[in-house]
Amino acid sequence: MDVFLVTKQMMILFSMIAIGYMVYRLNGLGEDSAxxxxxxxxxxxxxxxxxxxxxxxxxxxxxxxxxxxLILVGIFYxxxxxxxxxxxxxxxxxxxxxxVYRLLTLLPNCGFMGIPVVxxxxxxxxxxxxxxxxxxxxxxxxxxxxxxxxxxNPGNVPPTTFFQKIRxxxxxxxxxxxxxxxxxxxxxxxxxxxxxxxxGYMGNPCIPLSMLLIGCSLASSDILSMLKKVKIYGFLxxxxxxxxxxxxxxxxxxxxxxxxxxxxxxxxxxxAGSMVVLVAEKYGGKEDCAAGGVVLSTLASIIxxxxxxxxxP
Length: 313
What we know:
Elements: H1 3-25, H2 31-52, H3 65-91, H4 98-106, H5 114-121, H6 127-152, H7 162-170, H8 173-187, H9 193-203, H10 206-219, H11 223-227, H12 230-251, H13 258-268, H14 275-282, H15 287-309
């Protein structure tokens, strides 16, 4: 495990968060402005990042490993989906925090943390397999994730018709972008250099803006009160250590390529994804709980990822 690489990524991440925190404290960005900006990130910048992630990659170039990876991606999200229910049953958070804890458990940071760690430890040729995790991440985020946060917000008016229920899912920019990315990946259709550059430019702001907005969210919340919540530490232990270490023993029973299994376990070791904070903010969820889970799990990953790596097959 390259501890230096993980530490470097953490320094970059928290530097961005610190800038967002200071900008908010200096009145450079108000609550209304931050909310509007989060909408741009969720609905514009992140979808373009999703599409740009599949450029230069195709299904035909991955061989049999793609199918093994696809099966593991399904197992990955099934484990985390069930783990979210178990976590809520153990911690017993209030009704507003329950959906946030479930999302923090279900959606790890496969992109910003996952890509550089996998690239360093397994090689750049395995980034294509991380992209599959990211595709599933975005589909889940923009469907089940939004549904879960809206359901946990008592201020939301529940939809009355079937179309009203599925409209936010079908017409969501994130889902549309995921479908486009899947089509490009499986069809191998060539994409003009200009289009690739455009999508790349539009997706590039996603990571720094996400971190800045997390900093703004922290600045507007009671950090000391967040750190005093005992349940958040139970979440960290369960999410960052128990789940990935337990799955290292499960992985040994699967007849898959060893490197693909290591990637699977590394993905399980990633901290909570920052997009959970933005979705919580945009759709009226407990953003302070989401921000606490993201920031503290990211900080904890400096220690927990090397610990989990000891158990890798």
